[in-house]
Amino acid sequence: MSSMHDNDSDDADDEYSQFSDMLDLAALSELDMLEAEYLNLSFTEESNQDQGPREEINQPSETGIQSGCRPSPPVATKRPRGRPKGSQNKKTLEAYKSTNDTRDIPLSLGQEHVEGESSIAKRPVGRPPGTGPKQRAALTGISTLEQAVKKRPVGRPRKIHHFGNATLSASSSINGLHVPGLSKTGPTHRNTSVNARHGTLLVSMSPPPQDSQLINRSDNLIDIQDPSSHCSVVPSEYQIIPENDPSRIVDLDDEDNSSESDHECKDESRLLQDGIGDEDDGDDDEGEEDHAHLHSNRRHPLPAWLQDAFDACVDQSSRKNCGADGLPPLYRDHQTFWFPRPSPYFQLRKPKITPQDLYRCDIFLWDPECLIKEGIRCPNPHCGARLWRLSHIARPRRVVDLDRTFWILGYRYRCPQCVRPQSITFRSWDPRILAVLPHALAAEFPAQLSHQSGISKPALNLMRSCFQHGMGAKQFSNALLIQNLQNYDNLHLSYLHEIAERGTGPFLDKKYKSFPPFHDQSSDGLHGFVPSAQWLRDMYDKFVAEHRLDLNQHTAMLTGEVCAIDHSFKLTKHIAKVNGVPVFIALLTVTNEKGEIRICDFVETKSHSQYEFALTQMSQSLNQYGHIQPTVFYTDNMADKEFLEKCFPSLCCGVIPVEKYAELNPFTLPGHINVSVKKSERAIEDAMCTILDLLSDNDTTSSIVIGLDAEWNIETSESGYITGRGQTAIIQIALDSNIFILQVGLMLAGKHLPLLLRQVLANPYIIKVGRGITADLKYLEQACQSSVPFQGALDLAQFAKDRLVVSTARCSLADLCATVLHQRLNKNITQRLSTAWEDEDLTPQQIQYAALDAFASLQIYNSLQKIAVPSPLPEKPLAGTPIILWSGDRSRVIASGIISSHIEDASYAGISLTPSRCVIEVQKILIPGAIVTYGGRSTTRKTLEEYGALPFHLVCLRKHLRISETPNQPSSNCSLRLEANSSTDLPISNTEISADELVQPIANLAEESSPELLLIHPPSPVFEGSSINVGDLIQGVVRSNTPLTLGACNNHAEDPVSREMGEQVLQELHTSKSKWIKDIRSRVLKDPFHVFNMFYISAGHGLLQEFSIALRDAIFIPDSSDRSRIIAWGLAQNPSLSWNELLFTRPHWLWRRCKRIIPPPEELYSLVSQVFQSYGPLKDAKTGLPLFNAIAWATAKNILELVRKGFISDPPGIALFYELGVDVKTGLPLYRCIRGTNMTEGGVHTHLRSRMPSSGASIEHTQNCLNDFVIRHNLLVGTYNSTGQRYVGHYSIWLTNELQEMISLVQDMLVEPCLLSGWINGNLYKKTNEVTGVLPIPEKLQTKSAMAAYVPALHSKQPLHFLAEMQGTRKPVLPIHSNDERTLFRTLMTENVGFNHPITGPNWDIAVQIWNNEADVNDKISYKA
C-alpha cells in the first residue's frame, strides 16, 4: 500500500500495542490512581465454604429474646413434592371405613360426616384460627412490620439469583473453594447460627489474640453458648459453573436478531454475559420538572447500607450544617467533592465487621450553586433569574466505573420566575447547568449521565479507545463485569481472611455475616450492576454525537490535491441492517495524497446526486479554507469521470509538464563567473584576503554576503551500508563573480583551518547564506577546535518563510531555486552522497555541482532581500500603511489590506479601539472561511466572507497584523511540488505498497537490446477453474523468486481467427491514432492495477503467465536514472549484485528505491499493443485454443482506448512519487507512491470492517463508530505521512482546539508560554457543511421524489428517527424491508400503471412518487428514492 494504513494494520494486530494506546488515551482521567489502589490489595481467591451440620431453629425461645439475640421467625418453606408423610389416599380411607365406624376415623384423614355418605374433608376457607399476624407477633415478640414479607414485584422475575430477605433461609457458599488452613468441609467447631430475617449466615471462629486498641471483644458478635442462638442449617449454594441440566430453560434472545453467518463467526461473543443488574433502577433525569411530580416514578428501594450512607451525607450537607459562607463542611473543611470513607483495611480493624462495611460506598457531592458567589442563572432563554437550592434529590445517581460503582448526591434548583404552570426545577447535574459553570468547576463533574444512570469519565474514555481498536460493546461490558467481580471477590477474600484470623481465642463463639453474591438484591446485598452492551452503545453514541461537528470540521479542513475515490459495496452488506436488509447500498470514500480520509459517506440510493453533494461540499471546503483544488483523481471506474469533473472544475484545467520543474530552465553558471579550486593553505589564504579586503575598517556597520555550502564523504560499513557522515571535505564560497572551491579535508583531519578562513567564518559582518548553513558552521567550528564561535549564518529557508515566499522552512535548496529564481537546480544524489569528495583531484562534475550550490544560494538571497519582511505595527501606525492579517493560530495569512482611516477613532462599529485593537481595510481575502476576532471569549465570531464585498473595514487584534505588501505566496503548482519534494515527507512504511508496486516489472520492454525476457515461476498449484483474473495472477506470480526464461511463445502456433480479430481491433484503433490529445489530458485517471483486473483468460493456457508479466512490464517502466544508481550501487558491493539479482531476490527493496513511471500515451500505446499482438493469437499446446477469444479481444480494445485517451499514463506535472529522503544504508533515495486507489481500498476499506459494529447495532451507533474511525485514521496516517513521526496525542480534538485558544488568549500573562504549533484549529474558521456517514438527501431529489422535509418537533418519535434526521426527510429512506412493504410493492406492480405500464414498462420517477405518497399516510411504509 502507498500510505500509512498498512502500518496501522500491523499495529492493530499487536494486542499489546492496542492496549498501550488505550491506556494512554484513558490516562486523561484518574484511572492510574484507581488502579494503583486496587493493586495494593494482596488478596487470594479463596472462600470459607461448607460450614458443617446445622440445626434449624423452628421456634424462638424467650431466653434468646432476653439475651438480646432476636430469634428468627418461622421460615416459610416450599411444599415438597408428593403426599405428606403420614397421609392416606382415597383407597386407604375406604378400607378404613369398611372396618370401622366413620365417627372414629382419625382426624388426620380429614373426614367429615355427611348424612347418607362419607367423603374426604377439604381444607376450610380462610386462615386457621389463631394463626394471624397479630397472634404470631404476640407469640414471638416481633412486630408485624418486622415480620412483613416483601411483595413480589410486578412482571417476570429477572434472570438473577436473589439472596437475603424472604428469599434464602441460610447463607450462600461457592462450590469448590476453601479457606487455606481450614478443612474443605468447614471449621472443626459445629456451632453456627442463621439470621433468617436477612438470610445471612453467622459463623463463629476463634481468632488469634488481637491488639485491644484495635478490636473490642466485648459486645460485637453473637455468643453461640446461648441456646437461643443455636441453629443448624445446610447453606444454600451459589454455583459459579452450573451443573448439567437438560431440562433447564435456555433463553437465546439474540438468535432472531443475527444472521447465520454472525453466529458462525461470533460464537465466542455470544457466550459473554451482557450486563448484570437493573439498568432502570434510578430517578428519571428530566431536564426540568414540575415539583409536584418529583416522586411520581417509584423505583426499587435502596439497600439499607446505601440508604444509611446517603442519609448521613445528606444530613452532613444540609443547610443547618453549612457555615456563614453557605458551604457544606465537605467543601469548606475538606475542599473535596468526595465524602471521605475508610479504606477496607481500616474497616476490618473495627471490632464489629460486616460485609456491608467493605462495600465501596463512594458518594460525590455535587452542589455547584453554593460555590459561585453570584449564583447560577436560569438556563431558560430570556430569564436569567438566579436559581435557588430547593432540596436534595431523593435518590443518589448511580455511576458505573471501571471496577466499581459510585453515587452522586445532587440538588434540585428552582427558578423563582419560570412558572409553567408551576415552578420549574433543574437538577444540579443538568447539562445546561454544567454548561454555564466555570470550566474548572464543570471539569470536576466525574460522569457522563444517561436518563437514569451514568458512566464515569475514565470508563467512558477507555470504552471509546476500545471501540476505536475494534472491541465491541458486549466485549467491553463483559470486561467491566470481570473487573467488578474481581474487585468484589478481593473484598470478600479479605473479609474471610480477617474472620479466619479471629477464629481462635475469645472469638471462638462469635459469628459473622456471610458475604452475599455480587448481584444480591436483598437489603444487605451489594446490588451489583454492570451495564449491558446496548446501554454502553447508547452512552458512546451520546458522547460522540455531542462532538460530531468538531469531527466533521477537522475532516473538512484537510487538503485534497491528489485524490482517490472508491465505492465499497461489500462493507454495507454487513452493517446497519433493518429486518436483515442492509440500509445502505455503498460506502463512498475519498482519500488525499497523505492517505487521509477526505470523504467517507454512506449512500442510500444509486443516484449520483448524493455523490455529487458530498464532492461539491468538499470542493467548497477546499476554497473556504485556502487549499488547492484537486489536480488529479484516481478511480477504478471511469464512469465517475463526468461527475468528478462537474464537482471539481480544476480537473479540467490544462496540463503541467511531465517532469518536476521540467517547465523551468536549468540553473547554470553565467559565462563571467570564475570558478577556482584551492588546495593549499596559501591558496586558501589568498582567496580569503579578497573577501576580508571588502570590509571597511572604519565602518563597523557595513557587511558583505557570501554564498556558502559544504560537501563531505559518507562513511560506509564493510557491507556497503552508510553508517554516518565523514568530515567536511569541500567548502564552496560564492562572492560576486567568484566561486572558490576549498579542499579542506586534510586540514580538518589535523584539527585546524587556515587562519584567514577562520576569520571569515567567525566574522559576524560576513553574512553566510545557504541551506542548513547553521549546522555547517557549527560542525566546522568543532572540527577545527576554534575558540571563537563561527557566526553570521543565515538560513535561506527561514529567510524565505519570513517573507512569505514559502510556507515551510523545511524546503530544500532546489525548491527555493525553483520558487524564487524560477530555475531548476539539478541535484545528483550520487554525487552528493559520495565517497570521492576527499580525492585530490575533483572531477568536472563535482566542481560543477559544488559551484552551483554556492552560487544558487547567493542568487536566492539577492532575490529574497528585495522583498520586505513583515514587521509589527508601530505604536501609532499611519492610515494607508499596507498590512497583512494572520489567522488566530498564526499558521497562515488570511487577508491583506491597509490601515483604516478610522485608526484614530475611539471606537468603530460599536467596538472600543483599545491599545490591543486596530481597524483595517481589507482589500484581498486569501481564506474566506477564516474567523477574525478582536479579543475576549464572548466576541462576535464572523468569517471574512461574512463582511460583504471588498473593500471593507473590520476590527482585529494588533498582534495578528504585520506591515507588508501583498503576500508573496508561491503559486499553487509550485506549492504542491515543494510539499512533494520535502525531505521531511513520510519515510516508507514496511507494509506500504502502492498499486503499481503490486505489479513489479521484471524486464524493460523498451530495451530492444535485451535478447530475452525473464519471468518468475508461479506457485504450485497455480489456478483452479476455467478462467482467472490477470491481476490476481500477477499477485500470485510475484511471490516466487525462481526465474524462468521467456521464449516459449516461439513454440506456439497462431490461431488465424484470433489473429484476424486482433488485427481488426488494432486497425480500428490505428485509424484514430492520429487523434492524440497532446495538450489536454484527463485528470481523472483509471487506477492502473484495475487494468489487469479487466482481463479474464483461460486458467489452463500455457502462455498465461508470460502474457501477464509482459503486460505488466509494458505498463510500468523503471525510471532510468534510479535504475542506473541502483546498478552502480550493486556493482560496488562485495560480491556485486546485478539488477536482475536484486529484482528476483529483493523486489520489494528494489521498488522502494526506484520510481516506476507509466509512459505517455504515445509510448504506452505502442508497448501494450505489441504485447496484445504478440500473445493474443497464440494457441495452447494442449487445448489448441488461442489466448484471446472474442471477449478478451474486446477487453484489449477497451484497454487500448483507455491508453489512447491518456487515462492510464502518469499525468504530466503531477508529483506521484514523494522523495522521502535518503536510505542511510545505501545512499539511495527513498520514494512513496501515491498513484492509484490502494490508499482508499487497502488503507480504509480493509481496516474499516473490523472497526465497525456488527449488523445488530443501530444506525446511530454505526454512524458514530465511523466518525471515530475517521478521526483516528486521519491523525495516525496523516501525521505519519506528513512528518514521518507517529502521532502521540489523543483523539479528543475539541480539547486541543480549546487548549490552543486559551494559551493564545492568556499568552501575555504566561511566563515563557509554550504555544501549540502544527495544529490547524477548526474553531477559528467557518463551520463546514460537510458530513461524515449518513448523507442528507439533496433537496432536488426530495422534491423530485415527493418527500417531505424532516421537522424535529413532529418526526422525532418515529422508529429510525435518527436516520430520518440525518437524511433530512420526514421518514427514513430505506430499501424494501418488511412484509407490509413487500405486499405494497406486489400490489403496485400488478395494479398501478406507473409501476408496470403495458407498453413502456415501469416509470420509476413516477413510481417513487406514488410510493412516497403512500408512505405519507401509512406509518408502516418508509420512503424510497
Write up this protein:
With 1425 residues, this protein is an alpha+beta fold. 33% of the residues lie in helices and 15% in strands. It contains 47 helices and 48 strands. Strands 7, 8, 9, 10, 11 and 12 form a six-stranded mixed sheet that branches. Helix 32 (1056-1071) packs parallel to helix 39. The longest helix has 29 residues, at 473-501. The chain is globular. The N terminus is likely disordered.
Overall mean confidence score, pLDDT: 76
Number of strands: 48
> What's the shape?
globular
- Classify the beta-strand content into a percent band: 5-15%
**Biggest pleated-sheet summary:** 6 strands, mixed
Q: What is the structural class? A: alpha+beta
Radius of gyration: 42 Å
User: How widely separated are the two ends?
Assistant: 36 Å
Helix content: 25-40%
What ranges have pLDDT less than 50 throughout 5 or more consecutive residues? 1-13, 28-78, 95-121, 142-150, 159-234, 255-267, 287-296, 655-660, 969-1025, 1038-1046, 1071-1077
The number of helical runs is 47
